[in-house]
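Hi L.,

As promised, ATP-binding cassette sub-family G member 1-like:
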Amino acid sequence: METSSAGAGAGVARSIGRGHLSHLPQRPPVTLAFHDLTYSVRVGRSSKIILRGIHGEFRSGQLTAILGPSGAGKSTLLNVLAGYRVDGAGGHIYTNGEPRDLRQFKRLSRYIMQEDLLQPYITVREAMAIAADLKLGASITAREKVVVVEEIMQLLRLDKAKDTTTERLSGGERKRLSIALELLNNPPVIFLDEPTTGLDEVASSMCVSLLKRVARGGRTVVCSVHTPSARLFAHFDHVYVVADGRCAYHGAAAGVVPFLHCLHLSCPTTHNPADFIIEVSSGEYGSHADKMVAAIENGRCQSWRDYAVGSDTSQELELEQLNSGGVEKHNLKHGSTTCQQFHILLRRMLLQTLRNKAYLWLRVCLHLFLGLIIGLLFCNMGYDASKTIFNFGFCYACIIAMLYIPMMPVLLEFPREVQLMKREYFNRWYGLKAYYAALVVSRTPATIFFSLIYLALTYPITSQPLELPRILMFTTICITVALISESMGTAISSILSVVNSVFLGPALSVPLMLLAVYGFGDGDLPPPIIWKLARSCSYLRYGMEGLVAAIYGGRKEDLVCPEDKDFCEMKNISNFVKLLGMSGVSFWFDFGVLVVILLLMNFLGYYLLRQRLSPNYAYRSIKIIGNFIKAKMSMSHQ
Ligand SMILES: Nc1ncnc2c1ncn2[C@@H]1O[C@H](COP(=O)(O)OP(=O)(O)OP(=O)(O)O)[C@@H](O)[C@H]1O
């Protein structure tokens, strides 16, 4: 054992010493070119053009900076090139001279967005290990994975923070971890949206020099940068300047000053060339942007491309190592199988649930508190014939508790989780089936556990029948209702923001709650068909029927009328059940319907999440109609 770990350690040291990453899947170098690229969005009735027929080329082995004034279209250009925004884009994009196949390209490229969304409650080392398991699967051995993780952590100087949990990392460390996670399967193309935002000068410089090292390994690294300092600017090989959706410069970083000089715009020696070209293109020194766009032919001109770029032997050497075959020869599927992804994601989700101790305790306290309050409110009403109607109220209180308590945290939490998941899904860490299955399975034990805490208090305090089958039936119905409510929360929040989810969740719950008890008290008189249909849409209705069947179904003996009462109208259970209009209800029917609704609700959540990630035509049309209505409403407010 010792020999092998020593061997692995020596391997790590050797490979890091060589300055490149060993054991990683070989990937082809990819040169990305775009011709006549346009992008427009609809704003109300008109359309706004953001990219105006620009041209350009980003080469492998080079670190490219996209510069430009705020609102010029830098992020949009990255989004379109990475395939993150497709609707509204026009023009031609080529990879290695061939028209880009978006599906194939998404497998080759990684997009690191501006917000460093990282999975909480896991350490840097765990995050790297989980990402390695997902992305590298069984392509390499466990020992090789350790080597890869160690190498990348050293390359991105994360080794000192490897046992720190992600939420405690500094801004620079978060950014480097985001990059490290995406480097794991050696993507040939890496896009980064403002990787230096929020970092100080030293951290920014460290981050960009690391990106340069990554690019030197044969990768195409493209990042948008906001006003880089002169020191930072010096790291870039290639610069692409966007001004009002057009290309104002496209060439070597060293060519910026000579290019401007050719246009009779002299950069003062004390001035940072990056600041100067941004200021000129934003019109601070007069309207020179048109001149720049014309001189560089909106990106078509290649004259400044190789300005003063010397040959770099180490770069060529590393390029050779990665230059093994064309794009089509590489296995570009997910690194792990759906089953492996499910296990890894389930492990990660359970670990995160258990590590979030404050939230777990909060939930325990909430269930204890509610259990005690509801229990005491309906204390001993289970057998009291003078309080039969109140006991029905207790069933209703249980159903409402099982509706709101599991749903609200999901409405608040899941929209944020979707943002995180979108990043991992877009970068092809895993498939949606595995993710959704792991999500449902990981949540279920906690929901069951917390529902049991609540029921363990309320059921005995309210003196419900202490017969095992009835206890099991009551518990089963409550837990199933809780699981449906949680899935309903997931379905709502998978397509909406936190604000909209928190509005829509309770708004939908109110009719469900009303329909659950509509018509009770009318006896066995059948309600009008329309109400019968409406009632059957509420899963809470089946929950109510299930609970009544659990505590009253098949009971022959009367309830106990207290001595201080002369007469108890609801003493006879079958009369009471008849009054509720539930004489014919069957526990197994209601439970069966609830299980079907649970499955359908989960399927709906999965479908909506899929539409959020890759919308089909129907979903896109609904969105367009929604945006149209929104635009109309905001116009009528003005
Ligand atoms: N969906 C949209 N609807 C309307 N306008 C949009 C949309 N997306 C982008 N824009 C507009 O397009 C322009 C370019 O946006 P983009 O985010 O690409 O700029 P940027 O150069 O990255 O800016 P910054 O440096 O400030 O991040 C901006 O004026 C922005 O308001």
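Residues 338-637 form one domain.

Thanks again for sending the construct details.

K.
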